[in-house]
Amino acid sequence: MSQKSSLTALARQQLEMAVAASSGRSAATVFGGHEHSLRQTVIALAAGHGLAEHGSPGEATLQVLSGRVRMTAGEDAWEGSSGDLLIIPDSRHGLDAVEDSVVLLTVCKVR
């Protein structure tokens, strides 16, 4: 069965929630979960907020839906803006919002 959802509407909603939250972030799973290998999550970050350094989830990408983000892994750093696709390194990394941003995290977990 095919399903359709609007990433634009979800991104807008999550960004409103992130800007209002004291943590400066909000997220919603678009597809997947514990019963699936593939998981996609929309993550919204208010400018100046981010995700502290954390371990790699495995094979994963980050598509910037809006705004500008900076991903760091040790001494390395990559910036991404709307339309960019970042490959998440297989090491500890962090993500910061240079401006209000929304990204689509896609992770493939081995069952």
According to CATH, what is the class? Answer: Mainly Beta
Overall geometry comes to globular
Counting structural domains, the number is 1
Mean pLDDT: 92
Description of the molecule:
This protein is mostly beta strands. It has one helix at 7-20, and strands at residues 25-31, 38-45, 50-54, 59-66, 68-73, 76-81, 85-87, 93-97, 101-108. The protein has a single domain, classed as Jelly Rolls (Sandwich), CATH 2.60.120.10. It has one helix and nine strands; from the N terminus they run H-E-E-E-E-E-E-E-E-E. The strands form two sheets. Strands 1-2-9-4-7 form a five-stranded antiparallel β-sheet. The two termini are 23 Å apart.
Comma- or semicolon-separated keywords:
mainly beta, Jelly Rolls, 111 residues, 50% strand
How are the SSEs ordered, and which strands pair?
Elements: H1 7-20, E1 25-31, E2 38-45, E3 50-54, E4 59-66, E5 68-73, E6 76-81, E7 85-87, E8 93-97, E9 101-108
